[in-house]
Specification:
By secondary structure, this protein is an alpha/beta fold. Helix content is about 40%, strand content about 10%. The protein has helices at about 1-10, 50-60, 80-90, 105-115, 130-135, 140-160, 180-190, 210-230, 235-240, 245-255, 260-265, 270-275, 305-310, 310-320, 335-345, and strands spanning about 20-25, 65-70, 90-95, 120, 165-170, 190-195, 275, 280-285, 295-300. The chain starts with a helix and ends in a 17-residue tail after the last helix.
Length: about 350
């Protein structure tokens, strides 16, 4: 904490990266309603050799965890090699996938043999027609559930330590199905279901209205609480009440402000501890900043340390000390970890921090 305190004060650049997120590709075999990554098929992607170097450079900076995602990362033939490279350097490898390409036992075996510690798979409804409509491909749910079943079976037979998690993007089309998804996850042997309110700005298309949020809190959330207890899933407030619990919470959440403007009042420590690297090597503070702020560098031609301690990063850190940029206004990432860090750096003021209601850093 002493080094972090010095870096946050601007007395020296940070000396380590705690965790990183790598989007290996924008390519995807699905066409999700709330995502446009699949439209970027012509984008250049870093090659295997450079990604291996980037992973080694992150390890040398003390990185403990890398979260790999896409697009659909399993569309890259080298994804298993890169996961193995991560674990070989002593880092925890997490993977987010739609699961549809885990279509054979040997694929599941190959994936778990990499040493990956967590696999998150997207399920938006237990009903095929709705899930497939949201994900833009007929037969998507059937393929995804097959992937989860294969992973769970291989894990049990070979005694892997991997954690299986379902991610559910909550929209007005599927929020009432969350209890069914929890039951499905429990039956499949998953360890958690992570509800993710849809990231949508401007006119409402698929995010919940105030009335729908009230319905969720009144009728759905109590079922969610009971099912989490039944299956031994984590019961943090954000997992049960992702839209908040008060009238003020609902008013902000109906506009997509799920973190209730936490970063208007609090510093985000992600610029000092975390980095996000896109498929072409462009580096950003986090996934929220990609496409909304200029990149801080590019590891296609720079070393990770050169970017992380460079002037662009330092300029942004200086701005963060004064006020967070507009891109942070709706962000609901990193809050739990930021609260913990804030409490450690300034214990006397930690009691004033609101209860955790958003996802931790990576």
């Amino acid at each position: 904490m002493r080094e972090l305190r010095t870096a946050v004060a601007g007395e020296a650049p940070p000396t380590f990266i705690r965790c990183a997120k790598i989007k290996l590709t924008p390519r995807c075999n699905l066409r999700c309603l709330f995502c446009n990554y699949w439209t970027m098929n012509a984008c250049p992607e870093l090659g295997t050799a450079r990604w291996r170097e980037v992973i080694a450079e992150l390890a040398s900076l003390g990185c403990a965890k890398i979260h790999f995602s896409g697009g659909e990362p399993l569309l890259r033939s080298d994804v298993f090699e890169l996961l193995e490279c991560c674990t070989a350097h002593g880092m925890r490898a997490n993977l987010t996938t739609n699961g549809t390409l885990i279509n054979q036992r040997d694929v599941a075996e190959r994936l778990l043999a990499t040493g990956v510690r967590s696999v998150s798979i997207s399920v938006d409804s237990p009903e095929p027609r709705l899930h497939d409509r949201i994900r833009g491909r007929r037969g998507a749910l059937k393929a995804t559930l097959r992937g989860i079943e294969l992973l769970a079976d291989v894990r049990a037979r070979q005694r892997h330590r991997v954690s299986l998690r379902i991610n559910t993007v909550l929209t007005r089309r599927n929020y009432t199905r969350l209890p069914e998804i929890l039951r499905l996850a429990g039956e499949l042997g998953c360890q958690d279901v992570h509800p993710m309110p849809v990231d949508e700005r401007g006119p409402r298309r698929v995010r919940l209205s105030a009335g729908e949020i009230e319905e969720y809190n009144t009728y759905i959330a109590p079922q969610v609480q009971d099912l989490r207890t039944r299956y031994g899933f984590p019961e943090a407030q954000l997992l049960v009440w992702p839209f908040g619990t008060t009238e003020a919470d609902r008013k902000l959440s109906k506009h997509g402000c799920y973190a209730r403007r936490y970063y208007k009042r609090h510093l985000c420590y992600a610029p000092w501890l975390h980095t996000f690297i896109a498929w072409d090597g462009a580096v950003y503070l986090c996934c929220m900043a990609r496409g909304k702020t200029p990149p801080t560098g590019n590891v296609a031609g720079q070393r990770v340390a050169e970017v992380f301690t460079g002037q662009a990063y330092e300029t942004i850190r200086g701005q963060f000390r004064v006020a967070r940029p507009k891109v942070c206004r709706y962000c609901d990432n990193f809050i739990l970890e930021n609260q913990q860090i804030e409490a450690s750096l300034a214990p006397r003021s930690s009691s004033s921090a609101p209860a955790a209601d958003a996802a931790p850093l990576v």
